[in-house]
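Notes to self after the call with IL:
- keep both proteins in one doc
- input above output, always
- annotate only the second one for now

Protein 1:
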Amino acid sequence: MGYYTNLIGEENMKILSQYLFNLLFIVAAIDNKIDRKEKLAIDFFLLEGDFKNPITNEVFRFLKENMDRISSENEEKLRKGVTLEEIVERANRVTDAINTLKKSVGEERVKECFMEFAFLAMAVGNASGGSKGFLGFGKKEPLSEEEFLVIISFLQSLGISPMEFKNFVSNYYQ
């Protein structure tokens, strides 16, 4: 187990990892399909990613090491169906996992991780139709309105303003 997994517990890391991974998946799927370049971007992050924030690195490492187990658990839930109560319980567990992480490493470090994930979600959205697309290939169109709204909603739900995210993106490669 990694440092942050030990710090917050394996179950909390699983919940947090799925939550953050779902952001990438939702951005890719918001147009009712996940195209090859969006999938390639997500696969690249899972297999080759090396990110500035160590929490982000551990989330991807955890996902990569546990993807089969997590996938089979999710498939079982889809087969059985999910009740509204289970959705609310899941949301509460996500909130608890985030709060546990904040208590362990500080709110700023967690915000950086979430903003990095939002930045990666932008890369996924841009993969097939972004300004240059993933690895420089694409249709030269910006993020769709739906992709943009998913990312901004994610950030705002965590108390991160669009301006704060814009500053993060501006400084990411410095």
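Protein 2 (the one to annotate):
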Amino acid sequence: MSQPAHYAALFEGHLRAFLASAAGQVERGAPFAEIEAAARGHPAVAAARTVGMWVAEDLVPAGAAAAAGAADAARLRERASRVERAVADASKRLQELSGPASAAPASADAFEELAAVVGGEVDELQAATARGFMAAAGAPLVEVRPHLALEDLRAEGSRMAFARARGPPPALALEPVANLRQDLARIKHYGLNDALQKAFRPMAYAVSSSYFKAVRPPVQLEGDLFEFKALSGIANAADAWTDAAQEALLEGFVERLRARGALALAGPEAARGEVVRALELERAALDLAGALDKEPASSSIPAEALVVLVVPAKLPAGGLTP
């Protein structure tokens, strides 16, 4: 088998294989704990940890120069305010859109439900953004590879090649990690949509997106009770895979910084989770605004990615049930 051109293709392949296996587990009624264990032991998790390690390794020389200063509280507050306004604007636009004009009833219903969930979480989304950015005040700034994406990463033997150049403006060391975690969230959506089309039938992104753990659709949303359980079971598997890969990416990043004596670049441990979440909220809000401008039919993807950051409900032991 030839080596994937970049890490996005690698993770897409991993997810396809995992969801094909998970569909079989769901069909035979396997308990969710079994599916979750398979997700945590999947090769994608080790690959994500490797990505995190090499991103950290890439930043250490930049951090060693210690010439970029520290994150300024006033600038972080301004940045948080921009995200807060973007979230409020996106929520309003989602409510006004009410699903694509040509959408089937199930798709329109799913889109409207997701829009309602986003609207109900605006206050928490804004509060989480403010908390996270302000928690980063004083953290070291380093030269990073702006807007780093999984498509920019390629394996070169035992090392990793970066398609983007590192350079100013300086940024928080956690920013590339947050971007890559959001890339995994996008891969999850496309992978699930493909898996459901193979297992059931073609459906809009709004429908498949509504089966993730951030949204609890009514049973009548799409098909009968059996199909609902099957759809939600596969979505739960996709969630478990993504959660495990995202966690491993951050863990690998922190582990390598610690090994290189540069853990300070990641900021205080107590604030790390909130900072990463705020950075992911920023990315998801920007993606949602872009989707609403250019491709409203797919805006459910960044919308779900946005709300799941503040609705991190653990999946029920038996998977999502009506």
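Annotation: Residues 218-223 have pLDDT under 50 and may be disordered. The domain at 7-307 is CATH 3.90.1200 (Aminoglycoside 3'-phosphotransferase; Chain: A, domain 2).
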